[in-house]
Sequence to fold (265 residues):
Amino acid sequence: MSRTPLVAGNWKMNQNQSTGLALINSFVQKVDMKQDVDVAVCPPFTLLAKVREALNSTHIQLGAQDVFWADHGAFTGSISAPMLTEFCVSFCIVGHSETRGRFGKLEVEEDTIGYFAETNKTVNLKIKSLLYHGINPILCVGETLAEREAGKTESAIKTQLDEGLAGIDGAELHTLVIAYEPVWAIGTGKTCASDEAERICGFIRDWVAKNYPEDDLANDVRVLYGGSVKAANSKELFSQPNIDGGLVGGASLDPTEFAAIVANA
Fold:
């Protein structure tokens, strides 16, 4: 079964109203509007309304960077899935290593790492909420450099998948996206070699096949690669049979670069 490639841009904590609008308008003008590639942009919460307006007449979809699992309540500073649906959000990133406190390039003081308290349990709750409200989760998984050097890459990812998707029926997961992001490659400029990225993405697809054999999910679930994706390396990465596109960080802030990455998909 052929899977439509997906390229999603994660703006992270960047852009204000004016610069964000200029960025998305420039990208819309540069990107080739092909129907055989899905494209999404995930701006900060504060820009969802502006970016939504800019995308109304395009095929580009809107994504969010995170979500809280309860629909409402005394959770100061949190954003719920029903709030995201008001902006017609199609995708939402869940379990990114930065929300887990797992940084490839540490830009905060070490004694503040506890602030980033995402766990596999909270990831699981968020995915359930997103699915209930019709938003497609982009589940991020990946290993740290220490885990890779200790030969624990597969076991770390397996645990993230086992616990992050626990108790979710396969019938609900056909629109799930899984993004393999080796933590050591995020924001560092280091990219996982394409053959190794393919091997791990194949491991993820095999996990899906083994855990949901009756639902034929392995043919539907898109597996992306993320971690210093650029125009220069994306074509080779996207040519791998088990890599269905990319979750793009810093390069998505450059309209020309991001458009070239989409073209390579």
About this structure: The beta strands are 6-10, 38-42, 61-64, 91-94, 136-141, 177-180, 222-226, 245-248. Residues 15 and 44 are 8 Å apart (CA to CA). The chain is about 35% helix and 15% strand. The longest strand covers residues 136-141.
